[in-house]
Amino acid sequence: MTIAATVRPGRPGLWRRDGALYLWRGGLLVAILALWELAGRYWVNPVFLSPPSVVAGRLVAMRADLLRHTVITLQEVLSGFAIAAAWGILAGYVLGANRTVERVVEPFLAAFYAVPIIAIAPLLILVFGLGTRSKVATAAIYAGLPIVVNVVTGIKNVDGVLVKAVRSLGAGRAQIFLKVTLPASLPYLLAGLRLGFTLALIAVIVSQMLAAYAGLGWLVAYAAGTFRTPDLYVGLVALGVLGMIANEGLRRLEYRLMRWHYERGR
Amino acid sequence: MSLIVVEGLTKVFPGPTDVVALDGVSLTVEEGEFVSLIGPSGCGKSTLLHILDGLEAATAGRALVAGRPVDGPGPDRGMVFQEYALLPWRTVQANVELGLELRHLPAAERRRVAGDRLALVGLQGFEGRYPHELSGGMRQRVSIARALALQPQILLMDEPFANLDAQTRLLLEEELLAIWQRTGQTVLFVTHDLAEAIAMADRVVIFTARPGRIKDVVRVPLPRPRDVVRVRTTPEFARVYDHVWTQLRDEVLKSREVA
Question: Within 13 Å of residue A109, how many CA atoms lie on the same side as its CB?
Answer without folding.
Answer: 22
